[in-house]
Amino acid sequence: MIKRCVVAYATRDAQWLWPVEVPQDANVAAVIGAARLVANRDEVPWESAALGIFGQPCQRTDVPADGDRIEIYRPLAADPKARRRQQVENQRRAQRRAGR
Description:
By secondary structure, the protein is α+β, with helices and mostly antiparallel strands. It is built from 2 helices and 5 strands.
């Protein structure tokens, strides 16, 4: 039997979806490998990126179900928590300066 999955990758400017057909027992790594063959895109971090299935983190050894979307995540430009802490600190400094 064959299962159909979609591999997704996005940058700030574009999104790619690669539908693939793989054997029923194929794991995430095999699905990504099949997508890599049809994608012809070297800029995608095929081997190193974090992965998910419909937004839930997964491992390369996990076996996706028929119809699953495997997502290849690009690294964050900045840690959201650290960025938020810096924004709050900047606001506090501005308020202290304004209160002088």
